[in-house]
Fold this sequence. Notes:
The chain is mainly β. Among the domains are: about 425-510, Immunoglobulin-like; about 515-575, Immunoglobulins (Immunoglobulin-like, Sandwich), CATH 2.60.40.10; about 590-785, Jelly Rolls (Sandwich), CATH 2.60.120. The protein is built from 1 helix and 66 strands. A hairpin with a 2-residue loop joins strand 43 (about 495-500) and strand 44. It starts with a strand and ends with a strand.
Amino acid sequence: MERAFSVIQFGATGNGETPDTKAIQSAIDACHENGGGTVYFPPGNYVSAGLTLKSNVTLELEAGATLLKKTEPGENVFLQGERIENVTIKGRGAIDGRLIPGRGVFTLVIRNSGNIRMEQVKVLNSSDWALTFNGCSHVKLLGISIIDGRKDSIDLVCCQNVQIDGVYIKGSGDDCICIKNESEGHRYDTRPDCGFLSENIVVSNTVIEDTTHPAFKIGTGTAGIFRNIIVHDCIFRNFNSVCCIQLMRPTMKETPDRVIENVRMSNIFAEGCNCLVDITQVDVAGPIIRNISLENIRLESVKRVSRIMGYAGAPIENVSLKGISFAGQVLTSENPLLKMEYVNRAVVSEWSVEGEYSPVISLKNCKEVLTDKILSSQKAPLLKVEGSDSERIVLDTGCLATAPEAVIAAEDVPERAVLPEVAGPEYSFVEGELSVLAGSGFNGKLMVKNKGAEGWFRRQVTVNGRPAALAESWLYRGETKEIPFTTCPLYETGKCRVSVEGQEWETEVIQTPGKLWIDPSVEVREEAAGFAFLLRAQNLGGTKLTEALYLKKNDVVLDEAAFALMPGEEKEICLRSKCPHTEGDRYQIPGYLDWNFRLAANTCSKYEMEGNRISITAGGKLYSDTGELEYLRIFEYAAMYQRTEGDFEATVRVMSQDFTGQYASAGLLICNNMSRAEEDRSLVVMTMAPKYGAMGIWRADEDGDGETEMQTCLSANYGYWLRIVKRGNVFRAYYSSDYENWKMDPNIARVTAAEKTQDVAVFSYANSVRNEVCRAVFQDFTIRKL
């Protein structure tokens, strides 16, 4: 018969004030030394510092019993055990981490152990990860509740044979159920005994609600192998994504190949979610992701695009998305339900959408994708296909709804990439312009009659034998349709022939005056003496054009470039400053450029301004030149800025940014040393980042040591407004979705050096492991003095 060891018998009081650490640990030790049994907690509040679990011991917390964490300097774990087995924590009582401030305390950490079981118990107020199993096998979490934790709820690190059933998670401050392969300190010599392996993990009958993070996530630590992972029959409410696979932080040279395979999620009800799936691998090189299945999932109020993104050297393989229904969306071809890039072999089947918009799916450089049984409205296209590597995009024509255009294909999509094609259609010109002005495109229409089954119609349009346009559309069985097209601009004056495989139309190009066009995007390169400004100029008219551009600094001409352009000709124009940049310098290319800028990017910087819209393209490595991982730091960026004295309010709207890294940054940057390198290096930053589709980050380096003292994540989206208000040395962050209703972040930055003049900037930073560049688009950047 199993022996029972009451903590009261060992001197515990349970009065909520007197520390019971020694009594509880004595009971655990005695139970273990006597061959095992149950350590029993009757009703009461037991205050304790860190405790060590031991083999063959069950902790049973009766209803009304709460184990409370005592604040103890230097402790970072409440309950821990290493190389133990046959340990159970059960009962209707609770373990309360008390949300200890500062770095926080892990509530439970068990390492390199087996046969671990938790039943019914509640885990409350964890100030760091709530439950952590590192290198463990045969773990069961049954009917437990995890409520109001500051960080992750369940972390399975290099674990095998895990069952999570009937779990309730509410108010998780970070990831809810997270599977990782990583080592302590990200060092190979601290890896778990089992190596970097996570496999045979099942999650079922679980409810997750009220978090801004994913319900289920693999990553971000992703060394080694993940396989055979199943999630089924769950309910998720008010959360980020149903499924997130995120590969980040390649911190160890010895890290083995990353393989994630055989992941299946099914029978999920998701309400108030940001997106269905978020699979990204931008921050690692050459991973293998394959055999991913999501089936029978109902989503309500989806807010963002779902992403499955491989890249050219590492496509994601064998993806199945079946039986997905959406309700309450307002999404279009510019904001689709699903975006897949470099995915090989995928099935998207049995989708339905309630509402006014179709389930638009964007495919870029994908191969062997089948879409079938898609129930959609008639207001938007079904597929948007891009990329020269696209191949065998197949629509099951018998199951398509009659959207006006089933497919939109970019010009770089190869012939026969979208299948099936219409067989033997009849077509002829029905309309075309008799003359066009030089610099304009020819507008025409084909009348096409489909005499067979549904399919994709696409024909090359030529002008005088040179490719000039594509006439394309999806045609349903027996449909007769007018298909409009517009050629590229025509510059050669006189008669010309517009042809479509034997069908011809004659038009005349009328001469026009020369017309100068300057690309509003200006590339700036740092040189030994000053900067080079590179612009693209083109003659959009029909006669030769001679022009000149000037570069000024503080209204003084530094350089001039005279050039001639034939009709349609395009040239790169280079203007050089030929002198060092000094504090407060303002550069001008009259009519095109008038701003201060900062260039600190490893690859290139481009700046563009049209009306109230600004775009900045910048590099920025994930690693420093010394090989150090730059996590949430900004040391390479491109910025446009103003020197601003006193108190102010800086506001900008972040419209979009390229997905070059999880923490690619675009937003507001305020510091002292942008124009004066000798100044204090403290800064405050409020940015958007592509992680989880979109998120806001507010952080500060208050003392200029290169480390972040304050950081919070914001629930935000592209198109949000960001605002920083400075009063004295105090900075506050605000954000808004509509410019009318603003929310203030509770965290305040205090920067001693902020009494000085500030550089106030919008900036972009790529955070790329492959030295890519990130283009960020901003709108309405303003600085208002207070």
